[in-house]
From TrEMBL:
GO terms for biological process: translation. The keyword Ribonucleoprotein applies. Belongs to the universal ribosomal protein uL4 family. One of its GO terms (cellular component) is ribonucleoprotein complex. This is Large ribosomal subunit protein uL4. InterPro entries: Ribosomal_uL4, Ribosomal_uL4-like, Ribosomal_uL4_dom_sf. Residues 63-77 have a biased composition (Basic residues). Coiled coil: none annotated. Residues 47-77 are annotated as: Disordered. GO terms for molecular function: rRNA binding; structural constituent of ribosome. It comes from Symbiobacterium thermophilum. Part of the 50S ribosomal subunit. Keywords: Ribonucleoprotein, Ribosomal protein, RNA-binding, rRNA-binding.
Length: 207
């Protein structure tokens, strides 16, 4: 079973925690993780890109010039894709890009993503972190004490509005509750910062 150190909010080591082998010690399947990440990215796409076909552009009510006798190529409409400001042939149109995967596959990918972070030493566990009111400085100080200088994903046991509001002004820092985790968010962050309660909650949900 993997073990990681537990820190306090000052960055000092205060103990050690043994992680569940089923959740944080799973074998990593790169193919599954790739597929899940592609799914989350596709589901984020708005799909609002749109181009006009020759039926939608303006103009073209009459033939530009007569069929014969001008020495120029024959044309029937200035809406033709051959013309400047004409219609677009194979351009994008609004559509849904997303797709879904089985729940078992998504949960397995989340276990593997967490396991990969543990193996690479990118999981940090804090004994407790609570705020009485939103204070960005408190979150910034915590990350500095933990030597987190890249993107970070802070995971709490339950939704915490104070921590969320405090972290949203810090570039590259995200906050979410343990029950809302997904493989993409886990892999996208340079460091994961879990509270001890959040670790227990994730093991309860995924174990």
């Amino acid at each position: 079973m993997p073990k990681v150190a537990v820190y306090n909010k000052e960055g000092a080591t205060v103990g050690e925690i043994t992680l569940s082998d089923a959740v944080f010690g799973a074998e990593v399947n790169p193919g599954l993780l790739h597929e899940v990440v592609q799914m989350y990215l596709a589901n984020k796409r708005q799909g609002t890109a749109d181009t006009k076909t020759r039926a939608e552009v303006s103009g073209g009510g009459r033939k530009p010039w007569r069929q014969k006798g001008t020495g120029r190529a024959r044309h029937g409409s200035i809406r033709s894709p051959l013309w400047r400001k004409g219609g677009i042939v194979f351009g994008p149109h609004p559509r849904e890009y997303g797709w879904s995967m089985p729940k078992k596959a998504r949960r397995a990918a989340l276990r593997q993503a967490l396991s990969a972070k543990v193996k690479s030493g990118e999981l940090i566990v804090v004994d407790k972190f609570e705020l009485e009111a939103p204070k960005t400085r408190e979150v910034a100080t915590l990350l500095k004490n933990l030597k987190v200088d890249g993107s970070a994903f802070i995971v709490t046991a339950q939704e915490d509005a104070n921590i969320y509001k405090s972290a949203r002004n810090i570039p590259g820092v995200r906050v979410n509750a343990a029950r809302n985790l997904n493989a993409y968010d886990v892999l996208a962050a340079s460091k994961l910062v879990f509270t001890q309660d959040a670790v227990a909650k994730v093991e309860e949900v995924l174990g």
